[in-house]
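REQUEST FORM: STRUCTURE PREDICTION
Request ID: SP-0412
Submitted by: Lab K.M.
Chain count: 1
Length (residues): 96
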Amino acid sequence: MTGEGRVPISIVCVYNDPAVLASCLERSVDLGRREAPQVELIAIDNRDQRFTSAGAALNRGVRDARHPVVAIVHQDVYLHSLAALEAAGALLEIGR
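STATUS: Completed
RESULT:
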């Protein structure tokens, strides 16, 4: 656990627009790493349609995740608090 009532989170995203990914999700994760350094971002590039569907790509990302709690997030999302995400993850862990 990192901090009181928090667990590290793996964030999985399938993207098709690197500029949107960089300006939204990646930017928010980079800025939030000070408060949640163990958060992992797994960005699956599906511009070449290597995966037959977004679901197949997301499944790959979940299989690659290091942490037991995974958040699936769109490329255009800005996460305002990784600590709050980790706290939500801790609540999910209680039920395991």
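NOTES: DSSP finds three helices and three strands in the chain.
Reviewed by: T.R.
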